[in-house]
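User: Round two. Same drill as before: sequence, then structure, for each protein.

Assistant: Same drill it is. First protein:
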Amino acid sequence: NKVLSIEKALSIQAHPDKQLAQQLHAMRPNDYKDGNHKPEMSIALTDFIALSGFRPLDEIAAFLDVYPEFSALVSGAAPEFRRAVAEGTDSERRSALKALFAELMMARDEDVRKQVEALVARVSEPSCNGTELDVSEAALVRRLNNDYPGDVGIFCVFMLNVLRLRAGDAFYMGPNDPHAYIYGDCIECMATSDNVVRAGLTPKQRDVQVLVDMLTYDYGAPSHKLMQPEHKSSVHALYNPPIDEFSVVRSSVNAGERADLEAIDGPRILLVAEGSGTLCVGTDEMPLGPGFVYFVCPSTVCTFAADTALVAYTAQCE
């Protein structure tokens, strides 16, 4: 459980499932440090922009027509992709999507730089200028080129869903699911692993072939990536992803009020995002303020006593 503050985009990446993680760890233990999977959930603390999962295929096909720089890098796979989108089975569409993504991510560096230069020149006209929260394709291309000039990951704007979240919104990233954080602050919770397979928007090691081969090539509208919290009370909301390793409780306590966080069987990590007050555990009292973090032992009841409106996030494992 950690807080990330993204000003410069983080890499196009995915995390392997357990079977692949074990294989990668056995073959390359210096690069892949453990044999566990690493599903993740992110909860926005501010306005937040991310890429996650493949777009609906008709959107990608439309971008091939609108952006010749994109289509120039995938000219080999594009015809079959268009055919599969128009009349193919789901299996054929996934196969065609994989071929398109592979051709893009494995394009020669000099070809990528040439097409990025042409693309940026075209979307950098004065009429294209927007705000830092602009999630139009033109704005994202400019932002990512400023962060990683000439990088192939810039073209992932045309292949991956763009998520714009408000504070309290969340999304889940399962194994073999491509994603990248673009801008904003978030709480990130994950399984115990350091395994990351990267392919763009990074100065770190890239493992493009592994990434291309590992993805599921699920595709669809960005709404299916978002998670809705389950409101347990007027104070507590539970973000519960479809895995056993963790969940997160958001506690919002009004100024001058108290609220209990009931005991569970597993350990917890509590982090204060906003406000001030006191954390009461038995007869012990500990201060609360932005950035304060506490480890909560199993079978422990905690009470929030808020001096000012208090927001805390508690990652837990039962």
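Second protein:
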Amino acid sequence: MPFLRISDSLMFHYLIPSCPNQEYPSLDPERPIFLLLHPRLFSSYFFASQWRDARLARGYNLLAIDHHYHGKTKAVLDDEPYDFSMVAKDLLIALDELKVKSCHILGIGLGAAIAIRMYMLCPDLVETLILSGKHPPVETVENKHQYMYLRDACYEKDDEGNDRLTPDVVHGLHWIGFGDETGADAIIEEWVATSSFRPSNRELINKIFSSLIDREPISADKWATIVCPVLIIHGEKDALYSPSVAQELYDAMPNARREMHVVPEAPHFLSWTHALEVNDLTVKFLDRMTGVDSETLGKLPSAVHRTSAVKYSEGAMLTSDASQDTPTVIKNKDS
């Protein structure tokens, strides 16, 4: 199980699910690196639906890191507000340790906010951004009050006095992330059973909710520094943030080569519930940016793709038509 020590107070857990040798995983120098940053509360295993997509697994190095306070990563908790800048800097150090010179990033929820800050700190490293379930550039006061209420509810033990979240809180978290999708029951149940996010762990609860309640807005001039290709994917039925929030995010990056897709009937964590649609959009976007033909690679027998060189189109980043004046709304997966 790969770990990477950054300091005495931080040791990252990471995965390279695209590597055939999982005993000693490594990055393939022939393939672009696709960094996956998971959402709040969950770990890198949240991306299982992306790992299983042969197009992504064969066309790209899939690198997933449990960022601070999540999964198997070991990070010291304190009483300070969640520090987006520190998290982004530490992840950049981890990429440097792994000798990553450039990468494409998919960020979900909190992962999307971290990805944006990684770009702002080191724009030459981040070639493209794919953002899903991203909160608005400026959080509303009403939302902050709701987050405070939910945070305080997480302090309460379940109905039998066990050190577990109450059924009402679990149901609320399910509804926020997955809406009425019953297919997410398993991941919620596993998270409740295995996560350190428990009433007795107030420091962790406070730290995670601080990333919502104490989040400082990014200034307009910093948003304007984003010039790389950006793909925004949002769920039409997102119970937490309506598609208008995705539009705000789109508008906040006037200099980016951006496009936006709203997936019908999809909830907040649509990469889990609507993996086919999200993966299709992701593959088409990345292939267009990199020149990789992952559609073809995904159809090759396993023994063939491991020895097949990935071809890049010269100037692929320069000839892409990803920049649009207006966002696109996808009404069905075949649009």
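DSSP finds 15 helices and nine strands in the chain.

User: Perfect.
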